[in-house]
Amino acid sequence: MKKYFILLFALCLSTGIFAQEGFKFGIQGGIPLEDYNEAVSVVLGADFSYMYPLGEVVDVGPAVGYIHGFAETFQTTIIREEQEAVQFMPLSAGVRFWTSNYFSFGGNIGYAMGINDGNEGGLYYRPTVAYLMSSSVEVNFSYTGIDIEETTWSTVTLGIVYNFEPKYRTRR
Q: Which segments does the entry list as coiled coil (predicted)?
């Protein structure tokens, strides 16, 4: 019940900043690596963030997201076993460095709460490289890592982000 309350609180918080300038909404899809490669077939996620420009080159801000790893189905001649989906809600702080009007790199770091049963969550980190296609749309490539006790959730994703631009600065 506590996890659902926290999720509801985060959704209300993100709805409150929806009308603010500097808000970003992104979706991404990817594949799992290493420890979760056998248990998860594909990963989808969404992020809500507010990036505040510190100048012409650096943006910082908070982010909240949702990650859903769709369970893989194992099949052998004797046993068919369905695994459970893996779900996280990352709460993080992000930084972006703009190397030009089109390219940025940076990352997020924080904590990813486990939503599904038996998933406690862990330290969340996500380095990102992005290309600004227009003043409102960027495409990014990222690696997501979540340190969970003795394993690491790791994925590579390709995403698209819609930027609600600040009035005082345009990247293009």
A: none
Where helices occur in 17-121 by DSSP H, the ranges are none
Of 75, 137, 67, 70, whose CA–CA distance to 102 is shortest? 137
Beta bridge partners of 139: 131, 160
Neighbours of 18 (CB within 10 A): 12
d(CA 131, CA 148): 31
What are 52's strand-pairing partners?
Answer: 60
Instruction: Tell me the two tokens of residue 40.
Output: 């998860």
CB 24 within 8 A of CB 49: yes
Per-residue pLDDT reduced to its tens digit, 107-142: 999 999 999 888 888 999 999 999 999 888 999 999
Query: What's the one-letter identity of residue 98?
Result: W
Backbone angles phi, psi at 37, to 5 degrees: -60, -35
Is residue 142 classed exposed, middle or buried when 0-12, 13-18 and 19+ CB atoms within 10 A define those classes? buried
- Answering whether pTM is above 0.85, one says no
Domains of the chain, each with CATH number or no CATH = 21-73+85-164 (2.40.160.20)
